Amino acid sequence: MSDAKLAWNGVSLVVPGLWEPAAIERRYLRLEERGMPRADIQWRRVRGPFDAGRHVRRLAKRFRRDEVRMVEPEGPWLRPFERLRESGLAAAHVQWQGGCGGVVHNPATGLAATLQFHDLADHSGSVDIAAGVLASFRDHWAGATLPWRMFGMRARTPSDFLLHGFSFMPGKSLVTLRRPKRMPAVDAPDRDIGRGPGVLLELERLVPADVVLGDRPVSLWAAEYCSERIQGETREQGQGIAWNSLRKRFLRRPVLSMGRIWHDASRNALLGVYASGDIPLDNHQFDEVCAQYGAV
């Protein structure tokens, strides 16, 4: 099975096709292969200097493992750490009984990440596989947009839209991002993302489309399904519908409602992008999000 790319909340990596996300949080992924843990990736953004040695000591205390230590990379680990450093990341090799990984920091963006690989003695070649995954790790916070690729959806959104919530269920996924009018600090608590004026951006995917639609045309189904979201007039666009409304209320903030929902017949998926809030959103930016959103 070919490798798969995963991208989530500012970071990405390439993993074996049999590695699947078993747990997902805002800044954490657990990857498993046929129910066996293979990797834990956790990250956050920090302000100021980052002490990798102190971070490793915290890991040892948290997991009650005295043998957790930083070591010089060697053998198959040499090239991955070179590649991380070439991409602008400071990286330290960490080792413990039964596994190893890396502590990574990007001084330019404040990203600090820990990648832990488990049970590397399970089968031959597992060290090379883990080393390849580590080498593929990338930080995207310095870019104008962030990639997303998880559970059958792919997207690219402006980097000032911050992850606000998500839900992955059989047949339906929804990722919610928010751009606050006043951007919080990189290490601010998650609750600050939802405070004050802002615009909400939602990415929805429904599958299988033929079951969801039944005998109804996409335009009729979409108008009913999005009836609570739609403000103003709708128009047919491609294999779906779209709307765009910005109402100004007397002495109050404007009310934004933009949306597009369409049928991707090649992937048998229904895809929706919705924007709402009390600050404007550029039409071109919304169209770019729609153009980059799809099913995989």
Structural class: alpha+beta
Order of strands across the biggest sheet?
3-4-5-9-8-7-6
CATH class value of the largest domain: Alpha Beta
Tell me, what's the shape? globular
Q: Could you state the oligomeric state of the chains shown?
A: single chain
Q: How many separate structural domains?
A: 2
Task: State the share of residues found in helices, binned by percent.
Answer: 10-25%
Unreliable residue stretches: none
Cα separation of the termini? 16 Å
Q: Over the alpha carbons, how many angstroms does the gyration radius reach?
A: 22 Å
Number of strands: 20
CATH architecture of the largest domain: 3-Layer(aba) Sandwich
Strand content: 35-45%
Mean pLDDT: 91
Looking at the structure, the CATH topology of the largest domain is Protein Transport Mog1p, Chain A
- Encode the helix/strand succession as letters: EEEEEHEHEEEHEEEEEEHHEEEEHE
Largest sheet: 7 strands, antiparallel
Number of helices: 6
List descriptors:
6 helices; Protein Transport Mog1p, Chain A; 296 residues; seven-stranded antiparallel sheet; 2 domains; 44% strand; alpha+beta
Describe the structure.
This protein is α+β, with helices and mostly antiparallel strands. The protein folds into two domains: 4-139, Mog1/PsbP, alpha/beta/alpha sandwich (Protein Transport Mog1p, Chain A, 3-Layer(aba) Sandwich); 145-295, Protein Transport Mog1p, Chain A. 18% of the residues lie in helices and 44% in strands. A seven-stranded antiparallel sheet has the order 3-4-5-9-8-7-6, with helices on both faces. β13 and β14 (172-180) form a beta hairpin. It is globular and about 65 Å long. The model has no long low-confidence stretch (mean pLDDT 91).
